[in-house]
């Protein structure tokens, strides 16, 4: 029997959701997986309440799934079973400190990413990680999944900005790792262990995040190509010229047309591919880098280059890119969004492989993504209710991952493993790797209650 009254004593009656309708809201995330309705949803408002909830779950042997906004794309916040308790961190949403002198911030896990970035910007500082879901995703979820984003090429991803964490262990006791200082080698790097752990090793209650000065200038542009391979070669050419744009994004013809259908902003429908590029930094450096980028675009066959003249035109460029996923998702009942990632030099081969796989399995695939860091998002548009079609989808995904690994790539650049990709984990790593991970997991969670079915290979 669930200790519902005990949970209510810890967090208050209004923060324990027991009705079927409420619980069903927490039954799924953004992955194409069957929903699982949890036994209970608990919403702590303070760090102390969070620790108490975890301790109570462990005492009663209740599987725990920690959830922010549920925007993740690999099943990481789908409850493990109907016996599971979902712990929502959305009410742990305070920005505790923004330190302008030492360039860091301290936040709770439920702070929305875009809200945090905006608060930092008001202090004339910069938090670069910008996942596509930033308007709703939370910092805790970003850390748990090691979220990336458009600026990953130049500025890195979430792990590069985590200076320290506080998190709860299985007993509900607080563990502290890292520091507010630039350098810290006190003990094991437990903060690093928690990044990308997908809620399987503990529950984050507080994060210390690095901030940096904002760039003084930037310039954005788009380039149109009549051949996908030319666009891929241009990406390789820009990187080979030792230019690291803050963003270097790719959209194929399918994506271009669906975005244009959706928002009608004047995208070239006959283009086979577009690159969307922004360089930033010192004004003189920006001018030099932009000139080099334009030269590489022309050298590799761009049929048209548009350079934004002001902030309005620049925002129009990035509106097109940020509309890619919602525009594709509206086309068919189901969208399977992947994030196969390869070394940057393999981008041309990866795009070729995606097109071959789409043709082989007779599937409609729109591809967009962070071409500059090798992270593409082939998005398969289908109807999961059509069993024959979805069987082809599953075969296509299997081949996509195998081709990715053959190119020296990774199963996931930013979406995580969750349940959706667990069966391929050993393909990329090794048997010893997964066994080592199991040992770590068993040591910190002997009952196996922290998000137990996630990354099931370990």
Question: Could you characterize the architecture of this molecule?
Answer:
This protein is an alpha+beta fold and 458 residues long. It folds into 3 domains: 4-88, Uridine Diphospho-n-acetylenolpyruvylglucosamine Reductase, domain 2 (2-Layer Sandwich), CATH 3.30.43; 95-210, 2-Layer Sandwich (Uridine Diphospho-n-acetylenolpyruvylglucosamine Reductase, domain 3), CATH 3.30.465.10; 217-406, FAD-linked oxidases, C-terminal domain (Vanillyl-alcohol Oxidase, Chain A, domain 3), CATH 3.40.462. It is built from 16 helices and 16 strands. The strands form 3 sheets. A 7-stranded antiparallel beta sheet has the order 13-10-12-11-15-16-14, with helices on both faces. The chain has a 5-stranded antiparallel beta sheet with strand order 5-6-9-7-8. Strand 7 (162-168) and strand 8 form a beta hairpin. Helix 1 (4-11) runs antiparallel to helix 3 (47-59). It is globular, with a radius of gyration of 22 Å. The mean pLDDT is 95.
């Amino acid at each position: 029997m669930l200790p519902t009254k005990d949970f209510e004593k810890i967090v208050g009656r209004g923060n324990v959701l027991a009705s079927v309708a409420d619980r069903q809201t927490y039954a799924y995330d953004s992955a194409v997986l069957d929903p699982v309705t949890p036994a209970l949803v608990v919403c702590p408002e303070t760090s102390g309440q969070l620790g108490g909830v975890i301790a109570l779950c462990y005492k009663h042997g209740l599987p725990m799934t920690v959830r922010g906004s549920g925007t993740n794309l690999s099943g990481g916040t789908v409850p493990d079973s109907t016996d599971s308790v979902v712990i929502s961190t959305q009410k742990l949403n305070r920005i505790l400190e923004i330190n302008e002198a030492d360039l860091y911030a301290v936040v709770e896990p439920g702070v929305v990413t875009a809200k945090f970035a905006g608060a930092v910007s008001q202090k004339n500082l910069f938090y670069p990680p910008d996942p596509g879901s930033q308007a709703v995703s939370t910092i805790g979820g970003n850390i748990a999944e090691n979220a990336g984003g458009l600026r990953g090429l130049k500025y890195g991803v979430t792990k590069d900005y985590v200076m320290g964490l506080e998190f709860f262990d299985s007993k509900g006791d607080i563990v502290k790792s890292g520091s507010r200082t630039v350098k810290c080698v006190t003990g094991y790097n437990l903060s690093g262990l928690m990044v990308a752990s997908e809620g399987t090793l503990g529950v984050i209650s507080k994060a210390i995040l690095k901030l940096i000065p904002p760039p003084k200038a930037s310039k954005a542009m788009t380039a149109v190509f009549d051949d996908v391979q030319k666009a891929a070669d241009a990406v390789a050419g820009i990187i080979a010229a030792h230019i690291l744009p803050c963003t270097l994004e790719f959209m194929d013809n399918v994506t271009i047309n669906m975005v244009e259908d959706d928002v009608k902003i004047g995208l070239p429908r006959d283009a086979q591919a577009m690159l969307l590029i922004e360089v930033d930094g010192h004004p003189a450096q920006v001018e030099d880098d932009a000139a080099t980028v334009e030269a590489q675009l022309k050298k590799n066959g761009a049929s048209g280059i548009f350079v934004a003249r002001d902030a309005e035109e620049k925002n129009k460029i990035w509106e097109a890119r940020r509309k890619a996923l919602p525009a594709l998702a509206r086309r068919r009942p189901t969208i399977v969004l992947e994030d196969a990632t390869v070394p940057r030099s393999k981008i041309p081969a990866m795009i070729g492989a995606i097109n071959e796989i789409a043709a082989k399995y007779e599937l409609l695939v729109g591809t967009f993504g962070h071409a500059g860091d090798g992270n593409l998002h082939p998005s398969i548009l289908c109807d999961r209710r059509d069993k024959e079609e979805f069987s082809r989808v599953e075969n296509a995904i299997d081949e996509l991952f195998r081709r990715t690994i053959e190119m020296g790539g990774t199963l996931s650049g930013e979406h995580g493993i969750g349940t959706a990709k667990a069966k391929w984990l050993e393909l990329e790593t090794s048997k010893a790797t997964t066994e080592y991970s199991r040992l770590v997991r068993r040591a910190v969670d002997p009952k196996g209650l922290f998000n137990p079915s996630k990354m099931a290979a370990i």
